[in-house]
Amino acid sequence: MAGRPEDTTDKEIIEFFRNSGDLVFSTGEIAEALSYSQPGMFKRLTKLEEEGKVESKKLGGTKAWWLVERGKNE
Fold it and tell me: Would the pTM count as exceeding 0.70?
């Protein structure tokens, strides 16, 4: 992946989902919690979705993301 090096690992993103009291998040909520840019987090979440660790659904003008079983077990 081109651009700046990733300073937030996939494991940290998965841990965010696991350790939160909520089940569903917007890209912005996750980016803010992990001090990451929103476009950068969107790319990371899309990659995790392609790997089958999270799923998403477009709701109005935003995307909602949640952890799936495969992600919970890693």
Answer: yes
What are the residue ranges of helices labelled H in 1-74?
Answer: 10-19, 27-33, 38-50, 69-72
Contacts of 36 (CB under 8 A, 6+ apart): 8, 30, 44
What are the structure tokens assigned to 2, written together?
């081109």
Sign for the pseudo-dihedral over CA of 45, 1, 39, 36: positive
Kindly state whether residue 2 falls inside one of the protein's structural domains.
no
Residue 3 CB: number of other CB atoms within 10 A? 7
Tens digits of residue pLDDT in 9-30? 999 999 999 999 899 999 999 9
Domain boundaries, position 25: 10-69
Give the integer Cα–Cα distance in Å for 3 and 16.
23
